Amino acid sequence: MEAYQRDFIDFLVRSGALLFGDFTTKSGRKTPYFVNTGRFRTGEQLARLGGWYAETLASRFGGGFDVLFGPAYKGIPLAVATAIALARDHGRDCGVVFNRKEKKDHGEGGALVGHELKDGERVVIVEDVTTAGTSIRETVPLLRARARIELVGLVVAVDRGERGPSGAGTALSEVGREFGFKTAAIVTVRDVIEHLHGRALDGRVVLDDAARERMEAYLAAYAPAASGPPAGSARGIPGNGGGAGGGPVR
After folding, report:
1. For residue 162, what are the CA distances in angstroms to 145, 159, 213, 242?
2. Which has the closest alpha carbon to 191: 237, 226, 156, 224?
3. CA dihedral defined by 76, 153, 2, 95, rounded to 10 degrees?
4. CA 111 to CA 92: how far, in whole Å?
5. Residue 117 gets which letter from DSSP?
6. 82, 54 in Cβ contact below 8 A?
7. Angle between the 134-146 and 171-179 helix axes, to the nearest 10 degrees?
8. DSSP-derived secondary structure letter, 60
9. How far, in Å, CA of 133 to CA of 239, rounded?
């Protein structure tokens, strides 16, 4: 695991965007942890968050993209923050586009806002997490209907490592195979377990033995059979899918 990934996990905890407890996913699964990028509420938090997304994009995609797409709603600030960080820290000025949940029938109209997509442009989707890939399957047709773009990738904050619809791989890797693009995560759930288990952060252990056991039980139930190395083993930069309480979460 890289130093920036460890810093990112600490940032998630300190910002309240990574919580451990009892939650329910959008699909109805009971989960012992919750990732909510909607908890990033200040300019400084979003600036730092964009920096981690930009670092992952630069590491995994190099210069092989032209436009960032942020699916409504949580993907919108993520794509904007990432584009700012790419320009500021990497000298990359790329376009940003996002969709509306409801198509506008006045003014400029349409379902997409921001950069005007052009034939041949390479697009990366910026999301928070992917549990079932539903939002990606809903938005890809919107992009391809606007122009003959090339979808080159999807980057998320945390790969939850849960199996996709076919059961053959993670939801993230299955989305990549379905649409033929590369996928990447800033960190994986295995990175989270490895980094936080038994470690004090600001004077408290956020992932003790009991919490880890619950996460391992969850992964045993919902991860693919070959879900990657056990917690505690070394991880590199994430690759192609490698890798309020009680309320519904993604």
Report:
1. 30, 8, 16, 11
2. 237
3. -50
4. 26
5. -
6. yes
7. 20
8. H
9. 17
What whole-number distance in Å separates Cα of residue 132 and Cα of residue 155? 15
SS3 161: coil
Residues in the chain, total? 250
Rounded to whole angstroms, how far apart are CA atoms 214 and 146? 44
Global confidence as pTM: 0.85
Measured CA to CA, the distance from residue 93 to residue 155 in angstroms comes to 18
* 159 within 8 A of 187, measured Cβ to Cβ: yes
CA dist 116 and 147 (Å) reads 9
Q: Are β-strands 95-104 and 110-114 bridged in parallel, bridged antiparallel, or unpaired?
A: antiparallel
Widest distance between CA atoms in the chain: 56
Which of the residues are catalytic? 104, 106
Please write the tens of the pLDDT for every residue from 50-97: 999 999 999 999 999 999 999 998 999 999 999 999 999 999 999 999
Measured distance CA(114)–CA(96) in Å, rounded: 6
Q: Is the pLDDT of residue 134 over 70?
A: yes
Give the CA angle between residues 116, 87, 5 to the nearest 5°.
115
Rg of the chain, C-alpha, whole Å: 18
Q: Which two tokens stand for residue 23?
A: 């939650």
A 10 A CB-CB count for 73 gives: 12
Q: Which domains does the chain have, with CATH numbers?
A: 3-233 (3.40.50.2020)
